[in-house]
Amino acid sequence: MSETVILSMKGISKAFGGLKALMDVSFDVFQGEIYGIIGPNGSGKTTLINCITGFIKPDKGHVFFRGDEITKWPAYKIAQTGITRTFQIMRPYYSLPAYKNLIIPLWSPRAKKLGGWRGGGRHGDRDTVAVDILEEIGFERDSRVPYKLASTLPTGYQKRLELARCMALRPDVIFCDEVFSGLSMSEIAGMVPLIEKLKMEGVTLIMVEHRLRELFRVADRVMALNFGEKIAEGYYKEVIEDKRVREAYLGSEEV
Amino acid sequence: MKRKERIDRGLKVRTEGHYAISSLEEIGYLVGPRLLLILGVLLLPIILELAPYWKRVVNIMCVYAVLALAFDFLANYVGLVCLGGALFIGVGGYLAAIFNVYLSMPFWLSIPLATISGAFLCTLLILPCLPLRGVYFAIVTLMYPILISRIIEAFNILGGTNGISGVDSLPGEYVEEYTIIIVMLVALFAMRRLVNQDMGLVLRAVKDNDQSVRASGINVTHMKSIAVFIASLMGCFGGAYLAHLYMWAGLSLFALDFSIIPIAAVVMGGGGTLVGAVIGCFILVPLSEFLRFFGTFRIVIYCALLTGFIVFKSEGIMVYATRKYHQFERWVKV
Ligand SMILES: Nc1ncnc2c1ncn2[C@@H]1O[C@H](COP(=O)(O)OP(=O)(O)OP(=O)(O)O)[C@@H](O)[C@H]1O
Ligand SMILES: [Mg+2]
């Protein structure tokens, strides 16, 4: 982890009608770190990701990526500069086999420009590259799993597929919206090394999580949101000791 | 002792999408239906020497088949329910007539030119509607032909209600027939290829989940407009061809039949199969011609048949037939 700021958010606000989903949220993310975002249900975590990645336009505020302003860029353009995301409500391309799901990011201008994936070589055929990525993320190459229709995969595999879709783009930043939720302990244990590996490769990860214990194992720093406001930020011990965070989570047995 | 065996079993086990072929019988099993369709269609004009009236019907049937292919492609592979058939036909037809009559281009120039420029024009018209979803998109694409034909009528341009007559006919019956038959077959097999290629997969992904496609760095509007362009190319060719076939371009080229019959054909043939779109037209168009005999009552029969189809065989002929075909059984000694 370096001290270079890769993403910088300044005063992001968003209201849906009268509901203020985000109020003046500012934070910086350093190159190569794992940055956690926590907060009770409806505190605006997903909305924050949507605002940064261009899926909804913030009412106010600015987003800088490596010093350049990317506020209100269309989502596909933000993805092309290297900021991608998973979706909380994941929906793979159901009508395609799992490995064909990765053809879409591999076909994007960014993946074309950066060349294939390590395994497949620069001119590797996209199908091969796709199976390589799936293998890397834990689909057994010799089984039939990578070739099954995405709609028939169990949740654990669909979550991995969602992450694989991001990896295929060879991103600089990945926003993970609750990749651990809905997974069993053993499935999470399988995901954690993947996250750590991505970090080793220099990818910056921003993880929204409700599974605090698992998040704190990997995250370098954590921010807490409540009712659209940033209430704490820092090393996870400081954040969970924070009075306001404890109040926000009061009644939740996890802390 | 004997037991039943499914012919395709060996093939299915060995392959997943790619066919590993090991015997003549298996080649026949895979290629047979395709060959039958191609040869059957190619032989139609020769067979119909016996019934010349039906030759016209075959030509029109093929035009509808091309439209139905375009509809099936947009609806089931890209997720755009586009009722633009009449728009494509009308724009292609009028442009061909303009090029041929007003600018005196020969047919071999006016048809391709009308196809390409028409496709650009239609795509441009549809472009602003691309962010619309589902039924809203369908309605707007349905309004365009009505809008354009009213404009032609009101301002009395392009021949007004009389249309543009004096369009060159195609040289010879066989040219007439084989032009559209070959274009239809090429469109069918090109489409089947396209939807399984990487670009086709991206289009299918847009249908499944456009948010994820955006998050993968792909401009969804751009992809949709490419798809609409491909569909308009097919439709505008049909229109340009019809103008030369009828030697006339008039308001009836904007008739809603061109938007509606392809949908009925796709429903009947089986959505998302592409071949089904063609087969649906091959049944519906001759049928409606045959029913002319019953006068206005034909609509009743037509509707009853379609309703029956939707209620009892909603999967469509092709899906049903494919399943049955793959379940062919034979007796083997054990
Ligand atoms: N498109 C929208 N229109 C209207 N209100 C919305 C919209 N999206 C989110 N909201 C509201 O904004 C608030 C924040 O929602 P958001 O999804 O960002 O919460 P979250 O922190 O991700 O919650 P969760 O932990 O349940 O995923 C909620 O009250 C939600 O109802
Ligand atoms: Mg959320």
Structural class given helices, strands, pairing of chain A? alpha/beta
Strand numbers in spatial order across the main sheet of chain A: 6-7-8-3-9-10
The low-confidence runs of chain B, each spanning 5 or more residues with pLDDT under 50, are 13-18
The 3D shape of chain B can be described as: globular
How far is the first residue's CA from the last residue's CA of chain B?
Answer: 6 Å
Mean pLDDT of chain A: 87
CATH superfamily of chain A: P-loop containing nucleotide triphosphate hydrolases
CATH architecture of chain B: Orthogonal Bundle
The domain count of chain B comes to: 1
Q: Profile the largest sheet of chain B.
A: 2 strands, antiparallel
How much is the average pLDDT of chain B? 85
SSE run of chain B: EHHHHHHEHHHHEHHHHE
Number of strands of chain B: 4
Count of discrete structural domains of chain A: 1
CATH architecture of chain A: 3-Layer(aba) Sandwich
Quaternary organisation: heterodimer
Name the strands of the widest sheet of chain B in spatial order. 1-4
Which stretches of chain A of 5+ consecutive residues score pLDDT under 50? 116-123
Plain-language structure description:
The complex is a heterodimer of chains A (255) and B (334). Chain A is 35% helix and 24% strand. Chain A has helices at 45-53, 75-80, 98-101, 103-107, 109-114, 126-136, 155-168, 185-200, 212-218, 236-241, 243-248; strands at 5-16, 19-30, 34-38, 60-65, 68-69, 83-85, 173-177, 204-208, 221-226, 229-234. Chain A has a six-stranded mixed sheet, with helices on both faces. A four-stranded antiparallel sheet of chain A has the order 2-1-4-5, covered by helices on one side. In chain A, β9 and β10 form a beta hairpin. Chain A is globular. Chain B has 334 residues and is mostly helical. Residues 13-18 of chain B have low confidence and may be disordered. Chain A binds chain B through residues 53-55, 74-77, 79-80, 84-85, 87, 91-96, 100-101, 103-111, 126, 144, 147, 165-166, 168-169, and chain B through 16, 198-199, 201-202, 204-205, 207-209, 211-220. The structure holds adenosine-5'-triphosphate and magnesium ion. Magnesium ion (MG) is lined by residues 45-46, 88, 177 of chain A.
